[in-house]
Design brief:
The complex is a heterodimer of chains A (about 525) and B (about 375). Chain A is α/β, with parallel strands linked by helices and about 525 residues long. Chain A starts with a helix and ends in a 12-residue tail after the last helix. Chain A has an eight-stranded mixed β-sheet, sandwiched between helices. In chain B, strand 5, helix 11 and strand 6 form a beta-alpha-beta unit. Chain B is of the alpha/beta class and about 375 residues long. Classes of the chains: A alpha/beta (about 525), B alpha/beta (about 375). At the A-B interface, helix 2, helix 6, helix 9, helix 12 and helix 13 of A face helix 1, helix 4, helix 8 and helix 11 of B.
């Protein structure tokens, strides 16, 4: 459906290989692809034009024409420009010097203000502040109630003197809230306001009145990451109507590409300060411009993938499987495979996960035609096997095969293929896991525990065989060395996370093994 | 240890792909049954025909009566649209009435359409068609306004059935399931639809299957109280499918005409939540077929709206779209792309915060409003 920018550029540059330099026409073609990519990411048109102009200028001027791989160069330029706009100015919340700090939230209906208010309160609470939530959304039915429930969930007091549902004066509520905060010694006041449209002059005036009443230290514009071209109009309307100092992007856990971030940052010059990505109250963090840039361009995003994996995977099970692949703790069986497959499914659709791996662009078509139910069928086949068969698929003979096929409602040949493929894949993974890391993965940069890993890697090589030696003495030695490795590893593999910078670097350098493609014909 | 992770993820991906591609390849030979979800061309007619009683005297009219007359609603819709969107139509017309249409002008037209969130591909299609028509018909071409109107209408497919199937077959209640992403305006839409149905003297029951968001049930209950409609609810955090089941059960027992089921907002990329939604629908259908699945789309939504429509269609077979917040500066052009690709028509539009600000979608009026007429 959506080809990534990298794909598009790769296409454009395909015929250019061997050319000494890029012609003006080539650069124009490139610019057009960038334009489409940005538009599909919902970046506003005026911003796109300006941006493409800037990129074109740079591309014409320097690096690109002489570079070996012009596509990569252009992407690099685009990425840099994006990060420059998105992260040009990062700053923290300003706290008031005296008296309570007032933070006011404003935005369209359904942007997520009320939920965000509670998330922000929790985040502030973790920073040792004493936030007070103020229910100044008296418009939407039960918005007050929602804030109260959310406040309770995060353990923050909610100031809600009016029942809402169209009753009460939000300006007065906001003003009273400041007094209340002073009286009860809360040092941050978060004012949740009603959603309003940029074209609604009356409501905008009300927002301005609230602002004047509470004189906020920060006004945050809350905007949904899915917003389209209207982002610019709305952002400008709020800037003129209420004025704001920072932007909060919500619903980033969706798969919208979030071009709005770029539009707003570029049109208004206000930085995106926070990102909210998830339904849990803790899913709230500072904004990372570089990741957003990759996202807008829809470049493979290993970091996000790894993060998601860490959130959803059962760490113990995953480690076990990884160990097995690396030749420790028995063979990687179909049971493990099934477990892993089920875990991966929790991350979302397989085609999407695969799309997040860099270098997958060439298989995009296959991925898009991929039927997710294929996985269900595989699951059915594996589930139709006995535990013994799963542990040792070599057991499966003709009659077993027929039984499995019948049990899963598939053809005998499907069972066959599955088993064959499984062996093939296992061999490949074991090679990857043991044979000095990944082919095509140039030296992983200094990771904590690198030395230990090296030792761990040597051990199975020495044994030459995964099986426990027949000689009891040797077996004992093996076991001992295994235990040693075990104890050398940090007790909790996630207790000592690696430096994010390293991780990022590793993710960038990471590439799929070259022989990968041969399986995908 | 991060190395472990990367290895593992890739490993899994490799196994997955190898096995899958293998199966796929072998499967292609013996025609694996893949019941792909077909976009329904005329969604109003898929599950059941709305029975006679629902069909209005005038065939083109939606099956709904409104508390406010159809004409006045449309007038208001037009007014709202002309405020926010007329600029698009007027801008285009100004462009098209120029004597010579050079490449710059075409680019401007394209830009104007893009700014309306219509999307790159439909814009291209529209511009190409306009171009060839104006070129072929040359000097005798009807005035550009007519051409543009026709082309925009073609994109919106005015023949699509836009009636709401709010009655079930065999005396069973019509069941309307309302789905969408967070903050699109589902609960508000359910409330507004309930008002319309009540005004039409139909008995309605609301099912508050949004058990996730704080106070969503109360929000719906407030809507229900205003028009005296009962709301079936479960405690917060219960399985939404069970609430939906109870609502439909009560609806059948009480012999109501329509059961409206509100669901929690969910982002379409959350596999677990989408499965949950699929379950809600399956469970409801144990008792009575769902006559209408409405996807609520926010007019401000950009290209992601397409993905939303596709994924929700795959899971619950969306039969109609409600385009909300159209009274803002957003143009809602994404529905053009949605209808073009999935064939799911827009059935209702939300044009304001007032309880009766929900109007049937009329493509001609919509386009006319776009063009400032």
């Amino acid at each position: 459906m959506f080809a990534t920018l990298s794909d598009r550029l790769a296409d454009t540059f395909k015929n250019l290989r061997g050319k000494g330099r890029l012609s003006e026409a080539d650069i124009d073609a490139t610019a057009r692809e960038i334009r489409i990519a940005l538009l599909e990411a919902d970046v506003a048109l005026p911003v796109v034009k300006q941006f493409v102009g800037a990129v074109k200028e740079r591309a014409r001027g320097e690096e690109v024409s002489g570079a070996l791989n012009p596509a990569q160069q252009v992407i690099k330029i685009v990425n840099e420009e994006l990060v420059a706009i998105l992260g040009g100015e990062t700053r923290r919340l300003r706290y008031a010097k005296s008296g309570p700090t007032v933070i006011m939230l404003a935005g369209l209906q359904g942007a997520g203000k009320t939920t965000l208010a509670a998330k922000l309160a929790l985040w502030l609470k973790e920073q040792d502040k004493q936030p007070l939530l103020v229910a100044a959304d008296l418009q939407r039915p039960n918005a007050v109630n929602q804030l109260q429930v959310n406040g309770e969930r995060v353990g923050v007091k909610v100031f809600a003197p009016e029942p809402g549902n169209g009753v009460g004066d939000p300006v007065k509520v906001a003003r009273d809230a400041i007094e209340e905060a002073k009286r009860t010694l809360h040092d941050v006041v978060i004012v949740d306001t009603a959603g309003r449209l940029g074209v609604d002059a009356e409501m905008m005036q009300q927002a301005a009145d609230i602002r004047d009443a509470v004189n906020p230290d920060e006004v945050l514009f809350v905007v949904d990451a899915m917003i389209g071209q209207d982002a610019v109009t709305t952002a400008q309307a709020f800037l003129d109507g209420v004025g704001y100092d920072g932007v909060v992007l919500t619903k980033l856990d969706g798969d919208a590409r979030g071009g709005a971030a770029l539009s707003i940052a570029s049109i208004t010059g206000r930085p995106v300060m926070f990102a909210s990505a998830g339904e849990k109250m803790t899913d709230f963090d500072l904004f990372h411009p570089d990741r957003m840039a990759s996202r807008i361009l829809d470049m493979g995003d290993m970091l996000t993938l790894i993060e998601q994996a860490e959130k959803t995977f059962d760490a113990e099970q995953a480690m076990k499987a990884a160990d097995k692949l690396a030749g420790r703790g028995g063979e990687f069986t179909l049971t493990d495979f099934l477990e892993q497959m089920q875990q991966v499914r929790k991350l979302g659709s397989l085609s999407k996960i695969m799309g997040m791996l860099p270098g997958m662009a060439q298989f995009r078509d296959q991925l898009e035609n991929f039927d997710e139910r294929e996985i269900d069928r595989i699951e059915a086949i594996i589930c139709s096997m006995t535990p013994a068969e799963r542990a040792n698929p070599k057991l499966i003979d003709g009659s077993r095969r027929a039984r499995i096929a019948k049990g899963s409602g598939r053809q005998v040949s499907d069972v066959n293929t599955l088993v064959d493929r499984f062996f093939e894949a296992r061999k490949m993974m074991e090679q990857m896991a043991r044979g000095g890391g990944m082919p095509g993965m140039p030296g992983m940069p200094g990771m904590p525990g690198q030395g230990k890993r090296a030792k761990a890697k040597q051990a199975p090589k020495k044994g030459k065989s995964k099986r426990v030696s027949g000689n009891p003495a040797k077996a004992a030695a093996q076991k001992r060395s295994q235990e040693q490795q075990e104890s050398q590893r940090p007790a909790n593999p996630f207790g000592a996370p690696m430096d994010p910078a390293d991780l990022e670097k590793a993710a960038k350098e990471f590439q799929l093994p070259e022989d990968f493609s041969k399986f995908l014909k | 240890m991060a190395l472990e992770w990367i290895l593992l993820i890739v490993g899994i991906a490799v196994v997955g792909l190898l096995v899958l591609v293998g199966l796929l390849r072998s499967g292609r030979g013996d025609k694996v049954d893949t019941p792909t979800v077909q976009p329904t061309q005329a969604p109003g007619t898929d599950l059941l025909e709305p029975p006679e009683s629902v069909t209005e005297p005038e065939p083109s009219a939606p099956t709904l009566e409104r508390p406010e007359g159809r004409e006045s609603r449309l007038v208001r819709l037009r007014q709202r649209l002309s405020g926010s969107q007329g600029a698009l139509g007027r801008g285009l017309l100004a462009l098209l009435s120029r004597d010579r249409l050079d490449s710059d002008t075409w680019e401007d037209i394209e830009d104007t359409l893009l700014t309306a969130d219509i999307g790159v591909a439909p814009t291209q299609e529209l511009v190409d068609r306009l171009r060839s028509r104006l070129r072929v018909e040359g000097g005798e071409a009807p005035d550009p306004r007519t051409v543009l109107r026709e082309e925009l209408l073609t994109l919106l497919n005015p023949e699509a059935d836009r009636r709401l199937a709010v009655s079930g077959a065999d005396g069973q209640p019509g069941i309307v399931l309302v789905v969408g992403v967070n903050g699109a305006g589902k609960t508000t839409t359910v409330g507004k639809i309930a008002r319309i149905l009540v005004a039409e003297d139909r008995t309605v029951l609301l099912g508050a299957a949004d058990t996730f968001r704080a106070a969503a049930v109360e929000q719906l209950a407030t809507w229900g109280d205003r028009v005296g409609v009962e709301v079936v609810r479960g405690p917060e955090g219960t399985d939404p499918a069970s609430v939906a089941f109870d609502a439909v059960k009560q609806g059948i027992d009480a012999g109501v005409d329509t059961v409206l089921v509100d669901t929690a907002g969910r982002l379409q990329n959350k596999a677990g939540l989408m499965d949950e939604l699929g379950k809600v629908k399956r469970v409801i259908e144990k008792q009575a077929p769902v006559t209408e699945v409405l996807l609520v789309l926010d007019a401000t939504t950009g290209q992601n709206g397409m993905v939303q429509a596709r994924v929700f269609s795959e899971v619950v077979d969306v039969t109609g779209i409600v385009l909300t917040k159209l009274d803002g500066s957003a143009k809602g052009g994404i529905v053009v792309a949605v209808q073009r690709q999935l064939g799911v028509p827009v059935k209702l539009v939300g044009v304001g915060e007032g309880p009766d600000d929900l109007a049937p979608f009329d493509p001609e009026a919509f386009v006319d409003a776009l063009l400032g007429g």
